[in-house]
UniProtKB/TrEMBL annotation:
Record InterPro entries: AAA+_ATPase (IPR003593), ABC_branched_ATPase_LivF/BraG (IPR030660), ABC_transporter-like_ATP-bd (IPR003439), ABC_transporter-like_CS (IPR017871), BCAA_Transport_ATP-bd_LivF (IPR052156), P-loop_NTPase (IPR027417)
Residue ranges annotated for the ABC transporter domain, each copy included: 2-234
Species in which this protein is naturally found: Vagococcus entomophilus
Keyword field contains Hydrolase: no
Protein name: ABC transporter ATP-binding protein
Record's keyword annotation contains Transport: yes
Phylogenetic classification of the source organism: Bacteria, Bacillati, Bacillota, Bacilli, Lactobacillales
Length: 234
């Protein structure tokens, strides 16, 4: 579904991503893990068209997307939940969700998707008229995920959904990610929390200073000495 081939990304003189390749197949959860500054966010921003690669190709469902503007990329079926959530404060929960459907013209489809999201995140239904900025961190993460799902993406990109959340919320968010997969949405997950990200991943890639240094199934990576030593304190 998504094929990233040999991309490099520069910020001025800094090469933040170096010749990285990976792929995500339809129906999978794929996790990219790595420490602070490994280049994870840069890769996601490159896929969604917010940053341009200095070399390489990105294909989504067989079509090149590395030169498209972000709106076109979203319209092709890809949605990103940014790091730190970025919900719109001053707007209600409902209005935030509606913003996620700005490319969807069909009103009936919008209300059906909204129903589905309220089913999956009952707390958002309860809080639908509340200002988004008054939600807790975990609730804001749910809202950001719900907002991305409003465009009914085929591929959901999640940037550090566990960041700043209490363990109980992390578990809940990761249960929801598995539900999202079961309902047919493919997921690319970027995480520093290697343990939980690999435990739900079909496959994973380990990034270090802009390079892919290891890849394998979620299980294999969790069990590998390198991952145990570098990320799990083992
Ligand atoms: P984190 O988990 O801390 O967000 P990350 O793995 O997502 O880390 P990136 O945010 O992609 O890493 O950053 C990769 C490298 O690129 C870092 O060295 C960072 O300082 C640098 N970088 C990121 N954004 C910019 C920018 N706008 N200008 C210059 N350098 C940047």
């Amino acid at each position: 579904m998504l094929k990233v081939e040999n991309i490099s990304v520069h910020y001025g003189m800094i090469e933040a991503v170096k010749n990285v390749s990976f792929e995500v197949k339809a129906g999978e959860i794929v996790s990219l893990i790595g420490a602070n500054g490994a280049g994870k966010t840069t890769i996601l921003r490159t896929i969604s068209g917010l940053v341009r690669p200095s070399q390489g190709r990105i294909q989504f469902e067989g079509k090149p997307i590395e030169k498209l503007v972000p709106q076109k990329i979203v319209a092709s079926g890809l949605a990103q939940v940014p790091e730190g959530r970025h919900v719109f404060s001053g707007l209600s929960v409902m209005e935030n969700l509606e913003m996620g459907a700005y490319l969807v013209k069909d009103k009936k489809k919008i209300s059906e998707t909204l129903e589905m999201i309220f089913d999956r995140f009952p707390i958002l239904a309860e809080r639908k008229n509340q200002d988004a900025s008054t939600l807790s961190g975990g609730e804001q993460q749910m809202l950001a995920m719900g907002r991305a799902l409003m465009s009914q993406p085929k591929l959901l990109l999640l940037d550090e959904p566990s960041m700043g959340l209490a363990p109980i919320f992390i578990q809940e968010i990761f249960n929801i990610i598995q539900e999202i997969k079961k309902q047919g949405t493919t997921v690319l997950l970027i995480e520093q929390n290697a343990k939980i990200a690999l435990s739900i991943a079909d496959r994973g890639y380990v990034l270090e200073t802009g390079n892919v240094v290891l890849k394998g199934s979620g299980k294999e990576l969790l069990a590998s000495d390198e991952v145990q030593k570098a990320y799990l304190g083992g």
